[in-house]
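Journal club prep — side note

Before the paper discussion, L.F. wants everyone to see what a predicted structure for a comparable chain looks like in token form. Sequence:
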Amino acid sequence: MNHYCPPLCPIVCDPIQVVENYYVPQIVPVIHPIEVIKKTHCVPVHHHVYPVVVKEEDPCYVSSYSSKKKSVKKSGKARTSSRKR
């Protein structure tokens, strides 16, 4: 028994998709703005100053005559007193 089967209409399914991914770099600028803020701060720092004042005093004027006279009298008295003893 040989059955003869008639040809059938083909069934067409939805296509199966095969995706091949290719990646190509694309540059996207990302901007990061930076602000520089300059601040001045005063900091006290000791600076030692030593002012020098030079004073000149007037010399004590003693006449040479009176000083010689006094020294002669003293030495003379001392001689006289020592002689008396």
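L.F.'s comment for the group: The radius of gyration is 63 Å. Keep this in mind when we get to the figures.
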